[in-house]
Amino acid sequence: MQQDPMTQLDDHFHDECGVFGVFDQSEAANLTYLGLYAQQHRGQESAGIVATDGEHFHSHRDMGLVGDVFTPEDIARLKGRSSIGHVRYSTSGESGLRNCQPFSYQYAHGGIAMCHNGNIVNAGALRRELEEAGSIFQSTSDTEVLIHLVARSQGVTTGERVGEAVMRLEGGFSLLVLTETKLLAIRDRHGLRPLSLGKLGNSWVVSSETCAFDLIGAELVRDVAPGEMVVIDGDGLHSYQLFAPDQSRFCVFEYIYFARPDSTIAGTNVYQARYNIGVELAKESPVEADFVMPVPDSGVPPAMGYAAAIGYPFELGMIRNHYVGRTFIEPRQSIRNFGVKLKLNANRALIEGKRVVLVDDSIVRGTTSRKIVEMVRAAGAAEVHLRISSPPTTNSCYYGIDTPESSELMANQMNVEEMRCAIGADSLAFVSLDGLYRAVGRPRCLHCDACFSGDYPVPVEIAPSPQLSLLRYFSRHSK
Fold first, then answer.
1. Which letter does DSSP use for residue 407 in this model?
2. Are residues 48 and 142 located together in one domain of the fold?
3. Is residue 427 in a domain?
4. Beta bridge partners of 98
5. Are 101 and 220 part of one and the same domain?
6. Does residue 360 sit within a domain?
7. Is the distance from CB of 158 to CB of 104 less than 8 angstroms?
8. For residues 146, 147, 149 and 151, what is the CA-based torsion angle, rounded to 10 degrees?
9. Count of structural domains within the chain
10. Do the Cβ atoms of 221 and 210 come closer than 8 Å?
11. pLDDT, tens digit, 9 for 90 and up, residues 104-125
12. Residue 300: what are its φ and ψ, rounded to 5°?
């Protein structure tokens, strides 16, 4: 069966989701809607919001983009001054409403809603333990495992019950929990996934990325620390350190691709980090050329940095179509590289006869990189020199990133020269790990770069399979 060209459009690693929450603010659901809208890049499969008026929960979840899932009437029905929301990225596993977050439940201590970004790598073992004890699951999401752990906890307060449950989890996650009177925000012990605190007037807001604060006019206060549980209630903000605070291993790929460039993470502006990576690339891998051009959009900041550092013009030699939907009618199957052409087009008038430096953020399987290089050559480029603003991606991620199996990663199977030949570029170079961390401006010991180095901060033996989560695990192993 011929592969749908839409699946060829974006050969990148993809973040699984984004979260947003607000406590004690008028129009909380509307603010959460805007917070999710700003983080649409973190998940395009489904969206959901749960709000509380202090007595009841009101929920709306559906498949699709934020702007399609919620109508003004839907938002009006989400009554209350506190809410949490979630956007989810599609995977190759099961896709359906039952896996849309946030999840909300009634249990012995009242109502509770949860959503998270990341992956609990020991969720399979915990789920089996809970099922043997009589638990019944309604979804294949590892978030539901946490719901059951909280319900079985003997803790007195919500914070104690959630904290006790979270301390059993292994993996990378940022978690929001909403009750009728509290909002809790928790990061895993390594701080692998991002989560920031902000203030909107006298109210607290929480988000995967700070770009959401900018949209609603909130002020960034700080990041939630690795291993920290923040409890927000009528008495203010309370901080509890569930795990030792000296084990930060934040995902460095957030700086390279996942986060929006206008976000700030751990005090570092993402745009500036990407620009600096381009500068390092130019220092490490210069080449004679006529101009530098990005693969839009994520290649733009590093291409600008490369061009500035090496002294070549920066040109938009490729134009991106920002209106590519999820489906289309292919006019003729004989059109070469149709899927990529639908999204990107080379500017022949600019490229013809020129030596170009083409800058992209990563090479995953290599299929899209090869098609893009072919497109630039077909536009008349005399030479195509490919520069990548990440080190070679040789390993899968187990902490909430949608990645292929390691054996499907081009850099896992080939050296750089073999990759260059397969892609068809005149030269190929990646930024080094040292160059990457010089650009980010923070030491390597504070980050996870397992996709480049194989150095996993959480042992991968815990995972039931190399797939991301229970969702992918069950979908691939069900009969």
1. G
2. yes
3. yes
4. none
5. yes
6. yes
7. no
8. 160
9. 2
10. no
11. 999 999 999 999 998 888 888 8
12. -65, -55
Measured between alpha carbons, how far is 322 from 343 in angstroms, rounded to an integer? Answer: 7
Q: How many CB atoms lie under 10 A from the CB of residue 25?
A: 22
The tokens describing 198, both together, are: 């902000």
User: Which residues touch 471 (CB under 8 Å, ≥6 apart)?
Assistant: 91, 93, 94, 99, 140, 141, 142
Distance of CA 48 to the CA centre of its chain: 17
| β partners of residue 222 | 197
For 162, the 3-state DSSP assignment is helix
Say which CATH number the domain at 193 has. 3.60.20.10
Q: Among 339, 336, 372, which Cα is nearest to 356's?
A: 372
Backbone conformation region of residue 266, classed left if phi is above 0, alpha if psi is from -120 to 50, else beta:
left
Q: Which one, of 7, 90, 8, lies nearest residue 43 by Cα? A: 90
Give the residues of the chain that fall short of pLDDT 70. 1-16, 90-95, 245-246, 324-339, 400, 402, 460-479
State which H helix or E strand residue 173 sits in: strand 171-178
> Do residue 38 and residue 171 come from a single domain?
yes
Question: Which CATH number belongs to the domain containing residue 429 in this structure?
Answer: 3.40.50.2020
279 vs 281: CA distance, rounded Å:
5
Query: Residue 296, SS3?
Result: coil
Pick the last residue of a domain from 218, 249, 280. 249
Please check whether residue 460 lies inside any domain of the structure. no
Q: How many CB atoms lie within 10 A of CB 68?
A: 10
How many Cβ atoms sit within 10 Å of the Cβ of residue 131?
12
CA distance 184 to 231: 5
Are 83 and 202 members of one domain?
A: yes
Residue holding tokens 């934040």?
Answer: 250
> pLDDT tens-digit profile of 309-333?
999 999 999 998 877 654 444 555 4
If asked whether residues 225 and 143 sit together in one domain, one would say yes
275/239 same-domain check: no
Residue type, 318: M
Both 198 and 150 in one domain: the answer is yes
Which residues are annotated as catalytic? Answer: 17
Indicate whether 196 belongs to any domain.
yes
The pLDDT of residue 315 is: 97
The domain of 325 spans 269-442
Instruction: Specify the DSSP class assigned to residue 16.
Output: -
Nearest to 427 by CA among 383, 369, 364, 375: 383
DSSP single-letter state for residue 314 = B
**Are 235 and 316 found together in one domain?**
no
Rounded Cα gap, residues 5 and 336, in angstroms? 11
Sheet containing strand 355-360, edge to edge, reads: 291-294, 355-360, 383-388, 427-430
